[in-house]
Amino acid sequence: MSPPPATSSPPLMIEARALGFTRRDEDVFGPLDFALRGGEIGLIEGDNGSGKTTLLRVLAGLLRPGTGTVQVLGAQPGSEEARASTIIMGHLLGLKADLSALENLRIGMGLYGRAADANPDAILARVGLDGYANEAVRDLSAGQKKRVALARLALLPARLWLLDEPYANLDRHGIALVNDLLAQHAAAGGAALVTSHGAVNFHQGVTCTVRLAA
Amino acid sequence: MLPVLYAIIVATLFPFALGPEHALLARIAGGVVLVTVLLAMLLALDNVFRGDLDDGALEQMLLSPQPLSVLLAARMLAYWLVTALPLLLVAPILAYMLGLQPAVQPVLLLALLLATPLLALLGIVLTALTAGTRRSGMLLSLMLLPLAVPIVIFAAGAVGAAQQGLPWIAPLAWLAAALALALVLAPLACATALRIALDT
Q1: What CA–CA distance (Å, rounded) separates B126 from B106?
Q2: Residue A127 in contact with residue A173, Cβ under 8 Å?
Q3: In terms of CA atoms, which chain A residue is nearest residue B53?
Q4: Which residues from chain A sit within 8 angstroms of residue B199, using beta carbons?
């Protein structure tokens, strides 16, 4: 083990070396080399079907990496240490349609805990769902559902965000909101990996780009 | 509510099919109610993880830092409360309707009280194993059949013994032992099965 570097660089959130994934003997992506530190926002670029979602699922620990090695917060993806501080937001938002926005946030807090100074009502107001707290998620629009999921991100203490197409279904204000939340998360020392398939008016602070070929 | 309606309909149809001969119905009442209740429970089994799988909540559960087996134990308890408990409430009525001797009613209820959670635990483990596959219902039924047979044999054995005035505690003790084992092991097995099923 080499001693830690003298400069106090932020902790390594993701470290991938020659990471690849194969499905039925066919390369989905890789091999990839990249690293993401605390305070950084990474962007995964690639066309439809280039493996962006698969990469995020590997990093979350839902899929086993095929080749190479990957460490999330110094541990195996999907291990208890990694799970405690990672959250993934995919196309399926994981919201229960029959429960209200507030109840869905409470489920999230029950599973993951709560960030230090986070308050569910304040966060719902911040994502523009003031007055919708007790509305069943079933009755919300697609964009509003996305906002509930964003509120959950901001509410939970996870340090690493894996966001799959966070801009989909959102209006101009919603896109600004995502950028806002990302900036705040990065300023607090968190890291985020964001997928995008095209030109989105993306947050300026992108520090690393992972390019996936189709 | 569907399982309860199903159980009522099936149990009501038996006298029409077999004729209203009291002695015959009283003899088969225990077995009919047992099989009807256990079959009705299976109706909801295929859907235990379906909703969570479709809206992504299951992934959130898998990825949360909480121990998955404990979350699944809560899910199993909820399943039993929602499907089996209402069935246990109507089972004595169905048995009475078919003419089961009143003295045997407590034995039937006790047998159901042990058999339904056992079937729920085993069934949910199998459901977890088939969670990733489309139209898992057929596969699930085939896998569950051999596991349900001993449950029915022991439960019906107890009821049959009670009907003939014989000691009925031994088969129930076997059911209770199996239930104790399943209570501890099924959530762990279910967590492993779910991780295997969803790792594609």
Answers
A1: 30
A2: no
A3: A94
A4: 62-64
Cross-chain residue pair B54–A92, CB shorter than 8 Å: yes
Who contacts A45 (Cβ-Cβ below 8 Å, separation ≥6)? A52, A195, A196, A197, A209, A210, A211, A212
Q: In this prediction, does ipTM exceed 0.85?
A: no
Chain A contact set for B49 (CB, 8 A): none
Does residue A192 sit in helix, strand or coil?
strand
Range of the domain at B31: 2-198
At residue B59, the 3 state secondary structure works out as: helix
Top-confidence residue, A172 or A197 = A172
CA distances from B30 to A81, A105, B23, B114, B158 (A): 52, 47, 13, 15, 10
- Say if the Cβ atoms of A64 and B62 lie within 8 Å: no
- The C-alpha of B181 sits at a distance from chain A's nearest C-alpha, in angstroms, of 27
Nearest CA in chain B to A80: B65
Instruction: State whether B57 and A87 contact (CB < 8 Å).
Output: no
The 10s digit of each residue's pLDDT in B142-160 is 888 899 999 999 999 999 9
Hey, what CATH topology would domain A10-85+159-208 get? Rossmann fold (3.40.50)
As for how many domains chain B has, the answer is 1
Mean pLDDT, chain B, rounded, equals 90
Q: Report the SS3 class of residue A208.
A: strand
Structural domain spans, chain A: 10-85+159-208, 91-157
Residue B44: is its pLDDT beyond 70? yes
**DSSP letter assigned to residue A136:** B
Pull the structure tokens for residue B99: 């003419």
Place of tokens 């379906």: B50
pLDDT band at A1 (very low <50, low <70, confident <90, very high): very low
B199: nearest Cα among A58, A69, A17: A58
Give the best residue of A24, A62, A87, A88 to mutate against chain B (max B CB count within 10 A).
Answer: A62
| Residues linked to residue A34 through DSSP beta bridges, in sequence order | A16
10 Å Cβ neighbour count for B112? Answer: 23
- Backbone angles phi and psi of A7, in degrees to 5: -65, 140
Q: Which residue has the higher pLDDT, A150 or A80?
A: A150
Answer whether residue A192 shows pLDDT above 80. yes
β-pair partners for A191? A160
Q: Write the DSSP assignment of A100-120 as a string of letters.
A: BHHHHHHHHHHHH---TT--H
